[in-house]
Amino acid sequence: MSPITITFYTKNHCPLCDKAHMILEELQEEMPLEIRKIDIYQSDELIEKYGLMIPVIAAEGEELQYGQINKENLRKRLLTINK
Length: 83
Fold this sequence. Notes:
By secondary structure, the chain is α+β, with helices and mostly antiparallel strands. It has one domain (4-81): 3-Layer(aba) Sandwich (Glutaredoxin). It is 39% helix and 28% strand. The chain contains three helices and four strands. The protein has a four-stranded mixed β-sheet with strand order 2-1-3-4, covered by helices on one side. Strand 3 and strand 4 form a beta hairpin.
């Protein structure tokens, strides 16, 4: 199983982001994930695109989940990517 590169769009002082990061770390124990954490406040374009959606978890150029992250649904999506 090759690692899946996850792009995790987040910001500081975001409880939903903290919870999503914890879920990603838990999933990382089950499957090979490379997590790239990106603070949306580093770019006006990212703030405009994701400001109301964060946290956003993307892989393979596709946004998999955003906002309230569901671990089981995310696991299923990641497993389909890594086939």
